[in-house]
Structure formats: C-alpha cells, structure tokens
Amino acid sequence: MSRLIVVSNRVPDPAKGPPAGGLAVALNSALEKMGGVWMGWTGKSSGVKEPGPLQFVERGNITFALTDLSRRDLAEYYTGFANSVLWPLCHYRLDLTEYARKDMAGYFRVNRLFAERLRPLIQPDDIIWIHDYHLIPMASELRRLGVGNRIGFFMHIPWPSPDVFFTLPVHEAIIDNLTAYDLLGFQTEHDVENFALALKRDGIGRDMGDGWMAAYGRRFQAKAFPIGIDVAEFASTAREAVRSKAVKRTAVSFAGRDLIIGVDRLDYSKGLTHRIDGFERFLIANPAWRGRTTLLQVTPKSRSEVQGYSDMQRQVAEHAGRVNGAMGTLDWTPIRYINQSVGRNTLAGLYRIARVGLVTPLRDGMNLVAKEFVAAQNPADPGVLVLSRFAGAARELDAAVLVNPYDVEAIGNAIARALSMPLEARVERYTAMMARIEQNDISKWSADFLGMLQPEQQRTTEPALA
Ligand SMILES: O=P(O)(O)OC[C@H]1O[C@H](O[C@H]2O[C@H](CO)[C@@H](O)[C@H](O)[C@H]2O)[C@H](O)[C@@H](O)[C@@H]1O
Ligand SMILES: O=c1ccn([C@@H]2O[C@H](COP(=O)(O)OP(=O)(O)O)[C@@H](O)[C@H]2O)c(=O)[nH]1
C-alpha cells in the first residue's frame, strides 16, 4: 500500500500528542492508517539566519519533518505573498492586496525550499497531499526535481470569480503551477466553477467534463470536497463540557440572559464590524430584548503583523466599545468581546448553552465553527444558527437562517427571528443540518480525496487530450 505524505504550512506540534480537533485530526488519522510523513513549518522563525536542517519527530507510523523559516522568508512568503496578496484576493478584498515582486519571489523561493527538503523523503509509491494557498507552486518544484508521484492539492479558502482573480499580476503563473497537480480539491462547486471559468476566459484551458480539466497541455482532475468535522466526537464533547467548571461559571455570569455566540479568528474576512452593527440594529429595533441577551464574541488575534489586520483589530474594538457605551446599563454589557483563544472543549460547551450561533463572514472557504455549533446542540432544545450566504458551509447548511452579511439590518432581523423561533422550527432546522454534516464528516472528506488520488483512479477515468 502507498504511504501518504502531507505538506501544510503549519503542522500541529507533535510534542503535544495527537491533535484534539479540526483538520489536523483528519490528516493525523489518514496518516496513521497509511503511514507516512507530515512536513511543514514549525511556526517558529530562525531569526535572520537560514533555517537549520529538517527536524524529525517520530510518532507511531508518522514521521513529522519540520522546518523553521528565516525572518526574511516569513516576511515575504507568509506575511507577504500568502497573507497580503492571495488571502485578501481570494476573500474579495482587492483594496487590501499589496502586491510586491519581492514577496512573490520569496513565495516561490520558500516553495522551492520545501520541495528540496521533502525530495529525499519521497519513495516511488508515495502519494503526496499538499494543503492550501501558501504552497501552490510546490508540485511544480517537485516535478522539476523529478518527482513523478501522484500529487493532490486542497484549497481551503475560496477560489474567486475570474474578474477578481485576473487582478493578480501573476495569475497565469499561479494557474500554470496548479496544472502540475493530478487532483485539485476545492471547498464548494462554486469554487470549482470559478476555477474552470478562469481557464476558459483566459483561453488557457477548458473543462473536459466528468471532473477532468486541461490547461497548458496538461490534464488533471478538479472537484469539490467540502470539509467536515468529527460530528459524533464534537457532540459528545459538548454534552460533557456543559458540566465543566469553565462553562458553568460562564453560564452563571450571564445571569439568565440568552447567549448569542460568535467565534472567529480576528480576520477581516469574518465580517466582525458588520456583525456588531447588526447586533446594535437588533437592540434598537427590539428594545424589549435589551438587558435580556448578550453577544459573546470570542476572537483570538491572528496575523497581526499584516497591516490590514492591525487596522481592522482597532475598528472591531471601536465598534464593540461604541455599542457597549451607547446601549449598556449599570448591570448589563451587551457585547462581551474577548481576544483570547478558548480551548475547544469549553467552546463546545458554550455553543451548547447558546441560543444563537452568529456566523457571518463576508467570505469564507468553509467555516468549521458553523458545523461545530450545529453538532454541539441539544437535540431536544437546539439553538439556531444564523449563517452568512458567503460561507462555504451555507451550501450544505441551507436550513440555517441564511443572511447577507453586508446587510446589517438583515443581521438584526435574523437575530430577532432566531431568538424567538419556536421549538418545533428549531428542531426541524437542527435535524436537517445534522443529517447533512453527519453524511459528510471529516473522515469522508479525507477518504474521498485520497480515494481519488490513488494511481488506479487515473488509469480508469483519464480522457484523451484532443
Ligand atoms: O495558519 P494561520 O495563518 O494562523 O491561519 C489559520 C488557518 O486559517 C485558514 O482556514 C481555512 O481552512 C478551514 C478548514 O478547511 C476553513 O473552514 C476556513 O474557511 C478557511 O479560512 C487557512 O486556510 C489555513 O491554512 C490556516 O491554517
Ligand atoms: O478561540 C478559539 C477560536 C477558534 N477555535 C477553532 O478554530 C477553528 C476555526 O476554523 P474555521 O474554519 O471556522 O475558520 P478559520 O480560522 O480556519 O478561517 C474552529 O475549529 C474553532 O473551533 C478554537 O479552537 N478556539
């Protein structure tokens, strides 16, 4: 059987044991089944110096191969091209893209470094799965080094419409690099459509049907694989967590008020200022709810070294402060806004005691918080999910209260509707959403992708290039 090699920008710290949640669990379990290597960045900088040799950590049949990055590599590859160009572009924030040739060169240089470091670890039958926008050129770099193995790529963030994508000065190079993969995975059908449209509109390729595409004389497969969560595990964590001290103490601190919860990295794509304004509209339009509900917004800081993030951090704090100042009373603070990360067990318990989950990104690849909120609910008395139409998760969770996250009045109305929704309607929506996330959980996601990446798949389905 083939071994699996996973490459991602960040790798969960192997010293902390098997990961507890999210994407890392799925990759860990696929690696445990097949045996293999997980390569990526330690999350640390080696200062101004070149990174030292790969650090190897063995855990069971997984070899972790970790690299530091120099300060310059980090600035150009991660902070620069990945998070100041590709991230804002793919989230439709052209106003925040800061394209610089130096960063683009650094992005390619780090991808080459990753490929050169991985090359000696690759065996002939290995299959290789590369993750996310940080590492698009890695397959081309590996091909240049003579790697003929099957290589797949999964894009965790949205693929934008062609008009947006073509504003990227090096969009042709990005597509060219993607054609070095055998299989491209996207979060939704919509992302696949946008990608195929880019090939067609630029006259560089076409959709050949049955999931096959061709560009620059190469054939590859492209398909939507919406990422899921471990639903049963998260539901049981939430049941347990409501009995924990942390969740009980938090519940007591709300003094019987209905809890609305938002959980997001502090990122401009998450629509936090619009959300806070929407909550304010709700309080203005529904004065009877003042003093009876609290918005708990858990928002750990993220990528603060990028300019767009530090500006937005100030704006979100100002919006929350303004609403609390204007609407708060001696014994009630409408918004509890925290910038700390909360552990996933406590988070699961908080989702379960909340009446409303407010998930209103302006654009999001998937949004796992939406799925976690549903999985955590009490089936006999579930809370209501208010979800942005522009999160990948909305494609499956169409039984949520869907909102346009740019329309703050619509957010306000959706909150009012969710807080007063009768039990029967809440159970009906919850049941429909649970069925969807159970059908398409995290193990199905990795099994479907890896099933399609197996070499025999290519032989049985590959069409001729006309
Ligand atoms: O590594 P960071 O720069 O700190 O960022 C954290 C991760 O953010 C992004 O998450 C995306 O993937 C999720 C799972 O597929 C998806 O639900 C979400 O919509 C995406 O935004 C990023 O793509 C990851 O690479 C980062 O590790
Ligand atoms: O304080 C926090 C905030 C978030 N999360 C987790 O971080 C992930 C966020 O994933 P999502 O897809 O919603 O967004 P991303 O941050 O990847 O864009 C979810 O599993 C959350 O439970 C967490 O554990 N603690």
Automatic annotation (TrEMBL):
One of its GO terms (molecular function) is alpha,alpha-trehalose-phosphate synthase (UDP-forming) activity. It catalyses: D-glucose 6-phosphate + UDP-alpha-D-glucose = alpha,alpha-trehalose 6-phosphate + UDP + H(+). Pathway: Glycan biosynthesis; trehalose biosynthesis. It comes from the Bacteria. It holds the Pfam family Glyco_transf_20. Gene3D superfamilies: Glycogen Phosphorylase B. Keywords: Glycosyltransferase, Transferase. Signal peptide: none annotated. Probably involved in the osmoprotection via the biosynthesis of trehalose. Catalyzes the transfer of glucose from UDP-alpha-D-glucose (UDP-Glc) to D-glucose 6-phosphate (Glc-6-P) to form trehalose-6-phosphate. Acts with retention of the anomeric configuration of the UDP-sugar donor. Belongs to the glycosyltransferase 20 family. This is Trehalose-6-phosphate synthase. It comes from Paracoccus chinensis.
